[in-house]
Design brief:
This protein has 160 residues and is mostly helical. It has helices at 4-41, 46-54, 58-74, 85-122, 127-153. Helix 1 packs antiparallel against helix 3 and helix 2 (46-54) packs antiparallel against helix 4 (85-122).
């Protein structure tokens, strides 16, 4: 198949977007459930719990960024899409860090955010501390994003 390289690169882009997006959807949903319970009791805490709910959503954005970057690099967006089999494999593998870490970290970050929401429900003055715990999980999503982006940007352009 002459387009196998493109197919593999597209698979990588799809996995980055889908897996990180699924993790974020699960995470934002989990935190949203906890936030809704708090707002039911005290509507004045809406802004604080909303910030905590949004934190697990960043992995989906990172996955989308990697997917779009891949599509640009392989020429699907604004160019010709000639990608060798080797290049396609490199793009696929380059997308995997944010795909897997995005999925896993968004869910784990949601668990930390839910705990932070519980903290804010009881002690709203501890909002800053409540945000630190899920933010620590974010660090690993950022590292995976960095690995994926640097890998994608450094795949050599090979004549097909």
């Amino acid at each position: 198949m002459s387009n196998l390289g493109v197919v593999l690169a597209l698979l990588g882009a799809a996995l980055a977007s889908l897996m990180a997006g699924i993790g974020s959807a699960i995470g934002v949903g989990m935190a949203g459930e906890a936030a809704a319970g708090v707002v039911t009791e005290d509507p004045g805490k809406f802004g604080k719990v909303l910030l905590l709910q949004l934190l697990p959503g960043t992995q989906g954005i990172y996955g989308l960024l990697v997917a779009v970057l891949t599509l640009i690099q392989i020429g699907i967006l604004g160019g010709s899409s000639e990608v060798s089999l080797g290049q396609g494999l490199l793009y696929l593998v380059s997308c995997l860090p944010i795909a897997f870490v995005g999925l896993w970290s968004a869910i784990r970050q949601a668990r930390a955010a839910v705990s932070g929401i519980s903290t804010v429900a009881k002690r709203p003055e501890q909002m800053g501390k409540a945000m630190i715990f899920p933010a620590m999980v974010e660090t690993y999503a950022i590292l995976a994003l960095l690995v994926s982006v640097l890998s994608i940007l450094n795949i050599p352009k090979i004549n097909v």
